[in-house]
Design a protein that fits this description.
Elements: H1 3-17, H2 19-30, H3 35-45, E1 52-53, E2 58-59, E3 64-66, E4 71-73, E5 78-79, E6 84-86, E7 91-93, E8 98-99, E9 104-106, E10 108-110, E11 124-126, E12 129-131, E13 136-137, E14 142-143, E15 148-149, E16 154-155, E17 160-161, E18 170-173, E19 178-182
Parallel strand pairs: 1-4, 2-5, 3-6, 4-7, 5-8, 6-9, 7-12, 8-13, 9-14, 12-15, 13-16, 14-17, 16-18
Antiparallel strand pairs: 10-11, 18-19
Length: 187
């Protein structure tokens, strides 16, 4: 084996020593396994890397993570197909939450205020995201850093959820997201 072949192996060796990169290798191997077998393997081997994880969690195919050790997941949570969860700033997901396919949840953003420096050199801002109990987030929604989605809210597909005070049990939708109804009978 020449030097050209050993260099990638050396890089992989150093990658595996980093626990975050090691997690990404494991997730890459398990994330696209179909069916109940794949769901069970992800529950056993991926969820143990979360900061905390309740019972009955379902992780569908294709879910990607960053900062997984800052992700708190409650009981009976469904992470949908092809979700991307950037939890470096902290994400807490309550109980009985359903997250549709293609949803992105971000808790970190680039700093950009200093015009004398490239944005790539200005670092990051971390803002935790909180998703209350009984929330349903529709397909292809993007949840921005610092958002709190209160208990019982339903968010329509393709919404952009930004920081705002939303009432509990609201129907939310749009870009930017706004209250479009309520689940309460007398609301």
């Amino acid at each position: 084996m020449g030097e050209k072949m050993t260099e990638p192996l050396r890089l992989m060796w150093w990658d595996i020593k980093d626990s975050d990169v090691r997690f990404n290798y494991i997730n890459t191997l398990l994330r696209n396994l179909p069916g109940r077998f794949g769901i069970e393997l992800r529950r056993r081997f991926i969820a143990r890397h979360f900061a905390s994880c309740g019972d009955g969690v379902v992780i569908y195919e294709g879910v990607r993570y960053r900062g997984v050790r800052h992700l708190h997941v409650g009981n009976n949570v469904m992470l949908g197909v092809d979700n991307f969860i950037q939890a470096s700033g902290g994400i807490t997901i309550g109980n009985h939450v359903m997250i549709g396919p293609g949803v992105k949840i971000w808790s970190i953003n680039h700093n950009y205020a200093d015009i004398s420096k490239p944005i790539s050199e200005q670092g990051f801002s971390y803002e935790p995201v909180t998703i209350g109990d009984g929330v349903w987030i529709g397909a292809d929604t993007f949840v921005l850093p610092g958002v709190t989605i209160p208990e019982g809210c339903v968010i329509s597909a393709r919404s952009l959820v930004h920081k705002k005070n939303y009432p509990t049990y609201s129907l939310l939708g749009g870009m930017p997201c706004r209250v479009i109804g309520t689940r309460l009978k007398n609301g």
